[in-house]
Design goal:
Helix 3 packs parallel to helix 6, helix 4 packs antiparallel against helix 5 and helix 5 runs antiparallel to helix 6. The chain has one domain. The chain is elongated and about 65 Å long. The chain is mostly helical. It has a two-stranded antiparallel ribbon.
Length: about 200
């Protein structure tokens, strides 16, 4: 029962993380808080991969719901081994979603924002391997949207941090589920032999 309480606490932790990922991804569509940039298709292509909405958000609700519903599964199955197996598969789904969110966010951060420069709409930092992150004086190359570099760096860094936390939570449940699946049968056998 202790492992079920642990899984439920992890499920509760995933819900606000998933919600924040969705919000961060949505905000990337509206640089400078304006809608016209997305309407004119002047946002980086990476936001259309929905790393926060899909990978770090909606996909993450699957393990969250499974972890939270494990007590009901035990009540209906009569054993927590089937619930633990379900939690292992849900944790794997969560690991995949959080890894997707992390990888796309990292690539988007390295490539830099899509913005209007003296040469027109482009990604001016796309080929410098993320060096622009440490060269603040180059950020002024982006004329529009205002503060787009800071906007992207902040939101993508938030997505990186949140997806890392989600990955760790799902990894913890994966390990917990596997340990319970392997150790519990051994414990039951030992209890049976002691009682016999």
């Amino acid at each position: 029962m202790c492992s079920l309480a642990f899984a439920r606490s992890l499920g509760f932790a995933l819900i606000p993380l998933a919600t924040c990922c969705i919000v961060a991804n949505v905000l990337l569509f509206f640089p400078d808080g304006k809608i016209n940039f997305v309407q004119d298709d002047h946002v980086t292509t990476y936001v259309w991969y929905f790393m926060g909405i899909g990978g770090g958000g909606l996909v993450m609700l699957i393990p969250a719901c499974v972890f939270l519903g494990m007590g009901k599964c035990v009540d209906s199955c009569g054993t927590d081994s089937c619930a633990m197996c379900g939690s292992v598969f849900a944790a794997l789904v969560g690991l995949a979603g959080s890894a997707y969110c992390f990888l796309i966010s990292a690539v988007a951060l390295l490539k830099g924002p899509y913005c209007f420069t003296v040469m027109g709409w482009m990604s001016p930092f796309e080929d410098n391997g993320g060096k622009y992150l440490f060269a603040r004086e180059k950020w002024s190359e982006c004329i529009q949207p205002a503060h787009i570099v800071e906007w992207n760096i902040t939101l993508l860094s938030i997505l990186l941090g949140l997806s890392t936390l989600e990955f760790l939570i799902c990894f913890l449940q994966l390990v917990s589920g596997l340990v319970n699946a392997v150790c519990r049968p051994c414990c039951y056998k030992q209890e049976y032999s002691l009682n016999a």
